[in-house]
Structure of Ubiquitin carboxyl-terminal hydrolase:
Amino acid sequence: MAPRAEIVDGVKTFIPLENNPEILKLLCENLQASPDLKFHDIISTAPEFLQEYHFGSCRALIVLTHHPIYQAARSHVELTIPEYKGSGPIEPVIWMRQTIGHACGLMALLHALFNLDGGRYVSPGTTLAALRQQAISLGPTERAQLLYDSSFLEEAHMDAAARGSSRAPSPRDDNHHHFLAFVQKDREVWELNGGMNGPLLRGVLSQGEDLLSERGLELTVRDFLVAAERTGCNEMSIVAVTGTDGGA
């Protein structure tokens, strides 16, 4: 039986998730998402590596960074993001505030699932599809509460988090890492991070470019790679998200 979340300092808190393709795939299965979604470890952003493995068209990246890297790359950026107050189906992206402790891995995956191809990888008729539909109509505070109260999301996350390759920590353990997602939607590149004030438009790609192109990397993980080099910290991982047809 999967462990349960705990209340830590008055906040529901999960076990932190590992950022590896197997665990993300398992979490997708627990969420009843489409099996067409595929996950790939990006162990290098060097052109020769990306060309050799040819991951197909990548329109989402899930990134995990150690706190010093995150702070160096984003402390100044966070101050420029206005508080998000949007809701409804005409918003350019679905963004969700994170209010569950240690749930940033789940939030990164949900941001990818809810936004890629208009929610194409959220299987119709599932609990996840119902949550997405509810979330769209709600404002940020109510949307965050919807996720916070969901036993379905809690069970899906806790089961996947407990089955990682390393010893599963307690929800009470300190967590010095943070997840975020980059999602390409209609050529726009969005940084979706439930710990920020709202979604961040990073820029626009040209026809034929994806998130693993030179321009795509510049709009997504380049800041973090530079910060890792500057801080001397290498605790960072990148997972590319693609679909079976080469698109995502």
Q: What stands out?
A: The radius of gyration is 17 Å. The chain has a mean pLDDT of 92. The chain has one domain: 6-243.
